[in-house]
């Protein structure tokens, strides 16, 4: 088999290599020694002269088998790809890395000199260059017009909002949008949003504080991941302005922490415990979905039951698989079940109660292109989905000015405001009615179809005259 250059080196490797992880017997089950040696020899005889092994592949077992298989073959006739530094024969433990570079100096995972690398500073310059149009727009729209009223305030700086209020101001609750922070908010949000990995994540965090004899580099790597996640989590938790989606920025770190702990498991009892936990969650997921579907009358049980039943049966059938697969498979199946239900049945059904979006789409469908307005009833979704620019009317004087220009333009408002206008002598023509509910704050009374109507706010699109 023709050799190809490995990257920018002069080392030649075959296009296909023999992967020797599984024969090490760790995580992937391993194989009989004779079969492993025979497989390596067969690959070599077929022209595959590049072999990938490492100390971590069975703590030396893979390397041992490769050595036996290649015994008697000239070293110049094959290439070994490996990793280095792992030492499981010391008191520090099986994940102790004791490595030196070509000069005999300790190998460093983190090189702080990278912070003065020109590439990082070039990236900063490019970011500033790319956001310049937005900065210019904010400056001309707000900084040059201090008389503008924004969130009941004047002298609002667009540049300050961009660099401080929208980034850090919300954490210190000093921005124009304020909230009432709950220190436990992101804790319980993480527990349900990170399902089905939440329990393992909690165990992984607890496991960090157990006595360890890690070397400096390994401990540093662990604490950088855990520490940065913890600092960000605490910053979010004690901020005044909180939204659930903020926590997603930590999911990559949560995933690293969880995966790091899972791959460190050695005891069969631990594997079995987590496998049982994940399987219980898997069994509970379809029952929870079906209960919600039947209670709220969302989705078709005739479609949901067979689909989810097949997924659960598949995962349970593979429960006896060795290693991590029996933990990962039921977890992934749970994710699929929740994803299919939420994004194909539940959320699409909720969207029809987002009146702003529905009203904006209705204007497009009816090909009504005249500039609409929101009358004392603000809706971000209507402003987004409605065709073109959307006016906002704050009081009757602004309404009269709006009607003088063109009273055929559609107006988005509530039936309550409409009733007050009628008492003041305004006349109206209803174009369409839309139910509204704050769908990010679901309550049992809304989910219950028997009481749902009472929870809805009535929004209308009308044409007004005076």
Which class of secondary structure composition applies to the elements?
alpha/beta
- Write down the overall geometry: elongated
- Give the count of structural domains: 4
How far apart lie the N and C ends? 87 Å
Please list the strands of the largest sheet in the order they lie side by side. 9-8-10-12-11
Query: What is the typical, i.e. mean, pLDDT?
Result: 82
Q: How many distinct helices?
A: 17
Q: Main β-sheet: number of strands, strand sense, barrel status?
A: 5 strands, mixed
3D structure, described in words:
There is one protein chain. The protein has 466 residues and is an alpha/beta fold. The chain has four domains: 80 residues, no CATH class; 56 residues, no CATH class; 165 residues, no CATH class; 111 residues, no CATH class. Helices cover 50% and strands 10% of the residues. The chain has 17 helices and twelve strands. The strands form four sheets. The chain has a five-stranded mixed β-sheet with strand order 9-8-10-12-11, with helices on both faces. A three-stranded parallel β-sheet has the order 3-4-5. Strand 4, helix 2 and strand 5 form a beta-alpha-beta unit. The longest helix has 29 residues. The protein is elongated.
List the helices and strands and how they pair.
Blueprint: E1 4-5, E2 12-13, E3 18-19, H1 33-45, E4 50-52, H2 61-69, E5 79-81, E6 86-87, E7 96-97, H3 118-143, H4 158-172, H5 185-193, H6 198-208, H7 216-237, H8 251-262, H9 268-296, H10 301-317, H11 325-351, H12 355-365, E8 373-375, H13 380-385, E9 391-393, H14 396-405, E10 411-414, H15 415-423, E11 427-436, H16 444-447, H17 452-455, E12 457-465
Parallel strand pairs: 3-4, 4-5, 8-9, 8-10
Antiparallel strand pairs: 1-2, 6-7, 10-12, 11-12
Helix pairs in contact: 1-2, 6-8, 7-8, 9-10, 9-11, 10-11
